[in-house]
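User: Thanks for the earlier help. One more: Xre family transcriptional regulator. Can you show the sequence and predicted structure together?

Assistant: Of course, both are below.
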Amino acid sequence: MSGRGPKRELAEKIAGEITLSDDPGATLRKWRTDFDISQTDLAAELDVSSSVISDYESGRRESPGIGVVGRLVEGLLTIDERRGGERIRQYGRVLSAGFESDVVYDLREYATSIPLARLYDDLEATEVTAGSTDRVSGHTVIDSIEAITRLSSEEFFRLYGQSTNRVLVFTGVTRGESPLVALRVVNPTPNAVILHGIEEADLWDHAADLARIDGYSLAVTNAPLDDMLEYLVSLE
């Protein structure tokens, strides 16, 4: 893999995480499932039996050395490229926006705007407060704790990509107070905000009021994160 493009950057990130992990097998499994690649498909790509991949992931086989890790990573990326390269492109978008993938899960613009109501339905989201728009042109999905603790207000604004006409999804939310207060220091705000991991009954008492004051649609969802990301990354 030559050059310093997204594929090379992603390969180095995955290899580094596996090599330095206290549990390399679990880290390999995390990346394999993130790529939506089965043990069987990865084994076939590397011309080994499925039990080899299973043994590495379970810790039954000695932790893979650098050479083996390199082959495993190359296998994941090759399969992704053969499928159209969606995960590599996803990482490239996040990288080009200047973020780490543990802060921003996905950031993209749509070819055409889509109805916000449809997006909410597909994400099993309940609208708490209506905003001033009924369509969005993109989305950004972030880890709420990592974003709030690590990003400056300027970096936070870059989460909007090309336009604020998007839905900003905060994951790992418990009450919603921290992300909504953080949004108050960023001007302007996105047109829609989804708080993920929370039921409406557990929402911070002042959340709806802040959304109304700042004019954005606010919704909550407790849908499985992997399912939500799988749907969102399919939008173009």
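User: Great, one quick takeaway?

Assistant: DSSP finds twelve helices and six strands in the chain.
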